[in-house]
Write a structure and sequence with these properties.
Blueprint lengths: L1 E2 L8 E11 L4 E10 L2 E6 L11 E4 L4 E4 L1 E6 L12 H10 L2 E6 L10 H14 L3 E4 L15 H7 L14 H14 L2 E4 L4 H4 L4 E2 L2 H6 L3 E2 L2 H17 L2 E4 L5 H12 L4 E6 H5 L21 H13 L4 E3 L7 H4 L16 H10 L5 H8 L1 H7 L14 E11 L18 E11 L2 E5 L2
Parallel strand pairs: 2-5, 2-6, 7-8, 8-9, 10-13, 11-12, 13-14, 14-15
Antiparallel strand pairs: 1-18, 2-3, 3-4, 6-16, 16-17, 17-18
Helix pairs in contact: 2-3, 4-7, 7-8
Length: 437
């Protein structure tokens, strides 16, 4: 497999003999897709009869061509933790997984709480990354949860949205003010819903299994109480709000009620919460210590059904690279987090192969909906849209070997897992940035 520095796009690139899947419309057909000057010029079955002259032809051999994935939640260590991940290494992992746009969390060192840091990351991404890397900005100064950042200036600098990453803003007055100011600037607040006081020293989902393993549990109420509070503040302020990751049936019910009431709210779910449950922790597998924790199978089924119904808007990788020293510890003492950029699509396809969700619905949650929420022109097959595309075989089987991953860290919960679905080509702005050998 190969990843390359971002080349200049071919003036004309024809993706021939493809299964075209547009998650924005649900349209699916066999045909060709023409890229010109970094944009989608045309697509459909009619192109097969009249292929343009002078185009570089890529034979897709019946594989799926779809918009590139958009991941709204990934931790990248730069600046301050480059030993865990850099913009360059994260972008290579993203390209290999079919992710063409990555939103990077602000909990770095220093945190992304000043416009100058946003500008620095944008320039670093332009110089070193092979996919689109967009920084999110901190919601509070120093991620301390006490004082708002300069929301308007951060938005002008190019921040995707405001969030404190893996930290929750526990002060309701601060959150109320943030939602009010964000509303006035047209900015989006993304919040990690987890009450740290209720989490306490918990390390996995509270319940019978935690008791049997002798581990302190985290109740679902740590998530649902914070989510309920946030949605009441949204009702009060009229701000735009996105719950970063919901993980249980109760949160699904809360979001359903808020949406039915007409609140301007959306939510995401981690790919790990869709594909795994608390039983997968097994013999204290530290790569499965996550935040939010893996829940009961009933909760997993509830979030999958909510995703299929469109109640949950987006799927995120929750990419959180950790080094060996922070993971090779007792389960209760190791760091939270797992990598996921490179495996998000293949793991999601498990749900398609099991019949739990359709391919178009899965791709919509990874492409069209995040693009709509972020106000991006990507995420659809449409004439004039940016040519951020992937070519993948949804049925190709493989066993995940951590040594094959492009991330600097190897803490994947799918070590040795049997998966189906290989990305063969990733295109960003009309340029091929990844092509599997």
């Amino acid at each position: 497999m190969t990843t390359r520095p971002t080349p200049a796009p071919a003036r004309k690139l024809l993706l021939a003999n493809a299964r075209l899947v547009d998650p924005a419309t649900g349209r699916e057909e066999f045909g060709d897709l023409l890229v010109e000057d970094g944009l989608i010029a045309d697509f459909g079955a009619a192109l097969r009869a009249a292929r343009p002259e002078g185009a570089t032809v890529l034979d897709c051999r019946g594989e799926v061509v779809a918009p590139g994935l958009i991941d709204m939640r990934a931790f990248v260590g730069e600046p301050g933790a480059e030993h865990r991940e850099t913009l360059a290494s994260a972008s290579r992992a993203a390209a290999a997984g079919g992710v063409t746009t990555v939103v990077c969390m602000p909990d770095t060192n220093p945190p992304v709480d000043e416009p100058a840091v946003v500008d620095y990351l944008n320039r670093r991404a332009r110089d070193t990354a092979i996919v689109r890397m967009i920084p999110a900005a901190a919601l509070t100064k120093g991620l301390a949860g006490r004082e708002m950042t300069e929301i308007g200036l951060l938005r002008e600098a190019g921040a995707a949205f405001l969030t404190d990453g893996a930290r929750s803003v526990t002060n309701a007055q601060v959150m109320r003010r943030a939602l009010t100011y964000a509303r006035d600037f047209g900015a989006l607040i993304v919040h990690h819903c987890e009450d740290p006081d209720l989490v306490g020293d918990g390390v996995m989902n509270e319940g019978e299994l935690a008791s049997r393993l002798g581990l302190h549990g985290i109740p679902r109420e740590a998530e649902t109480l914070m989510l309920e509070r946030d949605l009441r503040l949204v009702r009060l302020t009229g701000g735009r709000y996105h719950a970063a990751m919901v993980s249980c049936a109760d949160s699904v019910a809360i979001m359903a009620r808020a949406k039915s009431d007409g609140l301007d709210v959306t939510c995401g779910v981690s790919i790990n919460s869709l594909a795994l449950n608390e039983n997968d922790i097994g013999p204290y597998r530290t790569f499965l210590k996550l935040s939010p924790p893996l829940r009961h199978e009933d909760d997993r089924i509830a979030v999958v059904e909510a995703l299929s119904d469109g109640l949950i808007d987006v799927i995120v990788s929750d990419h959180n690279p950790q080094d060996v020293e922070t993971k090779r510890q007792p389960f209760a003492e190791c760091a939270d987090g797992a990598i996921g950029l490179e495996t998000m699509l293949a793991v999601g396809l498990r749900l398609v192969h099991s019949g739990e969700i359709g391919l178009a619905a899965l791709l919509r949650a990874m492409t069209t909906r995040p693009a709509e929420i972020l106000g991006l022109p990507q995420g659809r097959l449409a004439r004039g849209a940016p040519a951020d595309l992937i070519v993948f075989d949804p049925d190709e089987p493989f066993v995940q070997d951590p040594a094959d991953l492009h991330s600097r860290s190897k803490n994947t919960p799918f070590d040795g897992a049997r998966l189906q679905g290989r990305v063969h080509v990733t295109i960003v702005g009309g340029a091929i940035v990844y092509q599997r050998d």
